[in-house]
Amino acid sequence: MPRWICLMAVPLAVISCSGRGSDNLVAQRIARFETGLVAFTSVEGLFQAGPVKSEDPKTLAERMGRYHTPGVSLAVIKDFKTEWAKAYGVLRAGGARPVATDSCFEAASTSKFVTAAIVLHFVEKGFLSLDEDINAYLKSWKLPDSDLTRRQKVTLRLLLTHQAGLPATNFPQKDGAGDPTLVQVLRGESPALNKPAVVEYIPGTKWQYSNIGYVVIQQILEDAIGTPFSEIARQTVFKPLGMKTSTFVYPLDEKLRAREAWPHDSAGILREPGMCPTALAHGGLMTTPSDLALFGAELMRAYNGRSHRLLSKEMARRMFTKVLDLDPAVMGGLPVGEGLGVFLYGEGDNLLFLHPGGNSPGMNCWLLGCPRTGDGAAIMTNGADGEVLALEIISALNRTR
After folding, report:
1. Which residue among 1, 78, 100, 319 is buried most deeply as judged by most CB within 10 Å?
2. Domain count within the chain
């Protein structure tokens, strides 16, 4: 019997409700959300408000079963603050430990959004430039020179926007050989089995999503600041914003390990986490939706000139300014653009920032928000098909806001 079926014997667990969750209107919206999910068929109408049009709305518990996703945690941002946060299901299929709002999930590629904010923070402080040749900052390793880089140098701006010409690669490693160092990952040397960080086309001429481009950013930050990336993130983002359950250190310490959500494949089978403990900036963040909501709300406040703890108003607006339009196929048909380390949809008062993330073998994350209004959400799941479930959750939240 598939292990995901064990989940159905565990009642859908509402573990925590925080912020203004005791308010009757908020409680009513939560109830409508939990019973008003509809099957996701396309991106059309994903952000469209209004009542459920389906004659057969489903509960969140039913959709979690449909997508073999044992656990879900989410936080909703309203008017630049966390309005409510709740958690559902279990950390591991077949287990009894429920997901709580302080359970740790893998942020996957949503980590890049945090990394980008760190870069822009240090650009604003004068430690880095968006348009300098990155080899001016690198000490532990240098990006290999070639005819391509002689025609156009690689810069932080190009790395942040996936235009540096670097390969699209994940980070497999040789079994039983230990973890690769960061430099071994960048060189593609054993025990790392990924493609090396070598430019494949003229920088600036093509958009190609690149995980290893953000690993290069990690090395730039470590060499330029002289501090491990995990500590840079803690000092720059997590501590100032009160993100108490966020870290780029993996494996987790004993306290957080007890609250770690584990991945499940598309059949709902429990799998071992596939986190790399050295290459971090592209997808190594461990966090909670509540902490991500603090991060998203902070950037929206900065965008409106209401805070400057992380970025100034001017820098936040640069971050959320479209650099180029992307092929709609990149986001499943949604016509998005690329900002400085974040995807953008719409414009003006209807501008949305969004960054999904998905780590093999089965963890997913979404963070999105509307800078003008200060509304948004963070959703994290521990199932391979949780990405589609998250889209249904986003749609349901939008209809019941």
Report:
1. 319
2. 1
pLDDT in tens, 31-90: 999 999 999 887 766 666 665 555 689 999 999 999 999 999 999 999 999 999 999 999
Q: 22: pLDDT confidence band, cut at 50, 70 and 90?
A: low
Task: Print burial letters for 170-204: b (CB count within 10 Å at least 16), e (below 16).
Answer: bbebeeeeeebbbebbbbbeebbbbbbbbbbeebb
Sheet holding 324-325, edge to edge: 81-89, 71-78, 375-381, 363-370, 352-359, 343-345, 337-338, 324-325
pLDDT average, residue stretch 236-259 = 97
Is 361 within 8 Å of 107 (Cβ atoms)? no
- Whichever domain contains 369, its CATH number is 3.40.710
CB 382, CB 69: distance < 8 Å: yes
Q: What pLDDT, on a 0 to 100 scale, did the predictor assign at position 17? A: 41
Question: Which residues, including other chains, have CB under 8 Å from residue 335's CB and lie 6 or more apart?
Answer: 325, 328, 345
Whether residue 215 contacts residue 279, with contact meaning beta carbons closer than 8 Å, is answered with yes
Contact between 164 and 203 (Cβ < 8 Å): yes
pTM, 2 dp: 0.92
Fill in the amino acid letter for 211: N
Asked if omega into 328 is within 30° of 0 (cis), the reply is no
| CA-CA-CA-CA torsion sign (332, 333, 334, 335) | positive
| Dihedral, CA of residue 345, residue 350, residue 353 and residue 358, to nearest 10 | -60
- 93, 7 in Cβ contact below 8 A? yes
- Where b means 16+ CB within 10 Å and e means fewer, 116-154 reads bbbbbbbbbeeebebeeebbebbeebebeeeebbeebbb
Burial class (CB within 10 angstroms; exposed 0-12, middle 13-18, buried 19+) of 55 = exposed
**Residue 8 in domain:** yes
| Residue 247 located in a structural domain | no
Identify the domain containing residue 291 by its residue range: 3-90+99-106+286-399
State yes or no: cis peptide before 361, omega within 30 of 0.
yes
The answer to the question of residue 111 being in a domain is no
